[in-house]
Amino acid sequence: MTDQTTPRPVIEARDLKTHFQGRTGIFNALAGAKPAVARAVDGVSLSINAREIVGLVGESGCGKSTLGMSLVRMYQPTSGQISFDGDDITHVEGRRLKAYRRQAQIIFQDPYSSLNPRLTIGQIIEEPLIIHGIGNAAERRAKVIRAMDIVRIPASENIDRFPSDLSGGQRQRIAIARTLVLEPRFIVADEPVSMLDVSIQASVLELLEELSRELGLAVLYISHDIATVGYICKHVAVMYLGRIVEEGRAEDILAEPLHPYTQRLMASIPRMDPGEIPERTELRGDVPSPMNVPPGCRFSTRCPCATDLCREIEPELCEQPGGQRVRCHIHDDRGARQRPDLERPEAGRITEIADAGLLAEATE
Amino acid sequence: MTGHQTLGPAAATALGQLNERLAAKPAAHLQVSGLSIHYSTLRGPFNAVDNVSFEVAAGTNLGLVGESGCGKSTVVKALMGLLPEMTRVTGQALLDGQNILGLSDADLQDVRWNRISLITQSAMNSLDPVYCIGDQICEAILAHEPVGKTVAWARAEQMFALVGLPAERLREFPHQFSGGMRQRAVIAMALALNAGMLLADEPTTALDPIMQSQIMSRIRGIHDHMRRSMILVTHDIAVVAETCETVVVMYAGKVAESGPTQDVLDRPLHPYTMGLQNAFPRLPVRGQPRKPLISIPGTVPNLLLPPAGCRFAGRCPFATNLCRSVAPPTYQIGAQSAACHYVERASQFRVAAAEPDTWRSMEPSR
Q: Strand, coil or helix: what is B266?
């Protein structure tokens, strides 16, 4: 399907921004107030090759789903560029947009609400083919059966059943089959296993990996369950408040993260072995609203290591010796050279501790 | 302590007495034996919980783990007396010697919140949107303790400090709180009367990883300070590994395995526990080969028509005809117990269960 000699990525985003316009009341509007803007995705660059699964992790509200939906053009990006196979598809409309969507598909989180309960499995998988005017009835049916084969739902027994007859894991496979039937080259998997029980998560992840390898798909795997990312992704990007704060090889990011946010994120995963439990510093508050992005480093309002420099100047993504890229003044001295008068943060030096002492005080 | 300054001397004394009275409450002991719960449905009785027994020693944490639909939340609801009317509950739950199943409303009122309190799964739905948080916490205190509103409010302030929320936010309404803050508020509420037994029903499931770990740290810290007994219901065995001394693994309404957490995780006896462990994603450790993630094929049986033998037999790679026809009794091995016909072969099973092919081979129609 893809030409293996070209190293060109299947999908590439450059400085992509997706902002949402808030609404103002009529009085504020008359008074000349500008509506608030939620900067959901704010300058993200990312590329995915064929046969590659890129993991995108972060807390809810960090913009990871918005990024995924912008890449398949469910949202219109505010600025920046998306190229698919080298073609700029950032602003395509009409027939060309439809053609793009045939190549780029999305799997949603909740298999209980993303399948129409009144259609049979066969009809659900066939629908995209009808929309794109592919084949006659017999050809479509053959394609549906092949797609069901790929996701290992036996077509003979299941093609005329309804989604309510299937378990959550099977439904998610049907959702995957629906995206595959168009033979796309890029799939966004938005939390595909978070609604599934642990005991069946593995099989869906395995399926995604297999598809990427055998069909040469580029996959963006979005998840807040960081541990699952390590199983299928080679490359991982961590998002915080609309920006990528760290990216690199999965084993580097998961085992030895550099950014204080990633470090806290990794430490928060519960461990099976009591000996492995890492130290967990408490972070203050919640992720700030994307309508009200803090100045300087976006994580500085919660970061335990933040200094004045962090609150003034936003660090750039900076490549580290190991190939990891991280957005933090601790690992990048450009900000410090620009403002030598401000204190620079250091790894491991805690400048502010959240209310951890309250507990001891309150129980006395 | 902050917040005292505004109290008059009389109220401050009353608060001191209230705190002393509450602190004197001992941690509760709970013995559940032979608990069975049948929901009446149009298609017949639904056997959600079948002959479940476990014990929570005073001052310890017990983890109740299992997949969705295995009956773990139903157990919690039964203990709180929250099941719908058309439910048949049999068996016993002795809270410090008193059976708390099937109590009258008046007797239940003395038990609920006073002796046993609940941290609910979705803090969004368990707070009343039209009352401010402080009033909701005070309501519980005023219902059980002979104190005035000022004293109850001061107690609520202390509880807020305990969970790391600023006291002034007691005047706010649930919608003004973020998800993590709401969950903390619910914890504060559950602690308000220092009940001897805490039931935490998936307290962190809907939260982000960082918030989840912060809330669990809170719960653990509070547990260390106050030594309450707790039942933690979760599907996350790693959370149990970090928090609970004992664990009960439930499958399709029955107890599959129980015992000290460390023993159960190190040497699981029941194939379901082994499968659950191998299906659980872990972070990679540099330099160590990583174990493959293995899913358990098949689905939980329909409890309207529970299978004749072991309920896990349909998904178990080691099942025999015996398993499919006779329900296994519970075998005790050391401190651990498991409902499996072949507990003596558990060490063989553990080796085989770590191989993905063992589970894959039994997937005729996956």
A: helix
